[in-house]
Amino acid sequence: MATDDPLAEMDSKRRKAARALARIAAIGLATLILAGLLGQILRARSVTAALLVYIPLPLVGLIAVLLDTFREGHAFFRPRFGLLALGSAALAWSTSSMTGSGVADRRSPGDREVSILHWNVQWGGGLFRSPRTWQAQCEAIESREPDIIVLSEAPAGDWIDRLVADFGPGAAFVGMHHDPRSPYWYRMAVCSRWPLKLDRRLSLTGGSGMSVEAEVDGRPIRLLVVDGISSPTRSRLPFLEAVVAACRDADSAGRPFDAILGDFNTPSRSLGFDALGVLGYRLAGRSAGGWRGTFPSWLPLYDIDHVWLGRRLRLGSCNFFNGPYTDHRGQVVRILLPEETRE
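RESULT FIELD:
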């Protein structure tokens, strides 16, 4: 019915426009949620499916819940509270898959606890890195009193020397970095309170890696440190298959890796990680207490930095942390070396 009141007519138009915008937003959110859930089911079987995995379901789900709540369940035409149900499903899925169990292995008499810290420090402080930013990161590392430090996107060697010096006498450092002419940049570093040996460098399809042996009171721990190329249009499966092949080769040689760790640039939901589980490796982050996302640090929606433990090691605890001047969260994994590994 037409009205002669211009203010009432203007208000009616505003309400209609708000309803239309809410429905457009609801359709967009519902599409994103369904696509994201499909990506979780497909588990990065292809490049397209991998892109769906990166839809931020927790954030999209929360926005959907808030919108439908504000619209009193009428964001959709039908059914009422349909968008709220979809948003709740996205939040439930994200919470269950990205929250650690907090369950660790039982400690046995004679176990030797060793703490391993992994962190992508973004070259020592990001785009505006300086000795000051690196010093702040070193303080964050040292405050957690790790025994072994594994860094992705590590700073230059002379900066690492300062961290090693703070470790005390007997500390060691090994590293590996990209060719200056290469478009793919990486720098991996391992620091330890005890002797270290760089066994070999690995050229992995879609990334790089290095085999490192750390000695802990005469007991060796073999590490495979990896870095995956970050490219949204590149399948991660060849990289993960190359990592698994390196693990199989190490097993066949009688020198299996005790831990595989680094910035994989790949969520743990990816199909390629299943083969690591078949070989007996398990993701330490799944036993962490609380949210286990690592990127971006200010809103960690994705778990792309991982520590996988082999059969020989038991898990004492895993804790994630935020540190300064980087967009990645770090993690401290406390492992238990059984007494029999002295041999």
